[in-house]
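Request from the bench team (R.T.):
"We need a structural guess for the complex before ordering more flavin-adenine dinucleotide. Sequence and SMILES attached. Just send the tokens back."

Command: build protein-flavin-adenine dinucleotide structure.
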Amino acid sequence: MKRTENADMREYTSFRAGGRADLLLVPDTEEELREALAEAEKRGDMLILGNGSDTLFRDGGFRGTVIMPGEGFSRISVNGCRIEAGASALLSQTAKTAQEASLTGLEPLSGIPGSIGGAVFMNAGAYGGEMKDVLESVTALSKETGEIRVIPAESLDMSYRHSVFTDTGDIVLSAVFRLEPGDSEEISEKMRDFTERRNSRQPLQYPSAGSFFKRPEGYFAGKLIQDAGLKGLTVGGAQVSEKHSGFIINTGDANASDIISLMHLVQNTVYDRSGVMLEPEVRIVGEEQ
Ligand SMILES: Cc1cc2nc3c(=O)[nH]c(=O)nc-3n(C[C@H](O)[C@H](O)[C@H](O)COP(=O)(O)OP(=O)(O)OC[C@H]3O[C@@H](n4cnc5c(N)ncnc54)[C@H](O)[C@@H]3O)c2cc1C
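Reply to R.T.: structure attached below.
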């Protein structure tokens, strides 16, 4: 099992900012995962990390163990209209496998840069589709009992950017998607279209965690931020994107504290102007410096 002491979490998160974790473990089998959990228990806090595209480590770092399911958890297999994908498989790769197998349903999610584990945890969604629309079941390991269970989608309590895992902290090992037969060319075309929309509207050349805030009921976070005159607002190396006000970007040398200060500034200004308190979608973890 790969282990790194004092791991620089900038390398493992899409914001490319933040501090170090005491220990990073990358298990490739269930047995190694259990060993990693046992070791983590002795060393303080524990966090499971997927592709790091919705997580920001504060600059003081993480006092404990980060466990990142490795390559061994990235298997994707097709069985009729079902696709099973391991926790560390990327959503994009899973969608590509579905397209090659002429299975439709994953296209709207194909451009989300997350792992299956992170996407299940967050109930990731885009362009009118959400994980919960296509998930049939999830295999998970209970943090408390060590038991492995197959949980049907109906019992995953999935709602906007929420799943049962947000509450339990249990570990997603794999997920089964139930898709529909389709035409592989048409699926490809839809995926291309969604990619183009992302490329034209999102500041993808900068490190970020996508839309920083959750969508408040009845509003769009980006519009509230723009209407409050905050487009382009900068704190240190962090900026409210000029291209998409819902994104906070790292313009090069942002600390996590720049990003978090900018987040507070945006929250307070938007609240004063519109009475809406924006809630971060990004998971902010670790210690202040
Ligand atoms: C450019 C860009 C565009 C984006 N666009 C979208 C979008 O359109 N829609 C959208 O919903 N999101 C979007 N995101 C955010 C992000 O990609 C999603 O939330 C994604 O699902 C996170 O997956 P991850 O593996 O990177 O999660 P991570 O950041 O690694 O983790 C997120 C959370 O999931 C938990 N977690 C991770 N793996 C597991 C596991 N195996 N078991 C249990 N818990 C786990 C972590 O503990 C953490 O709390 C975007 C991000 C970027 C950078």
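Two things stood out. The radius of gyration is 19 Å. The chain has three domains: 2-71, 74-199, 204-285.
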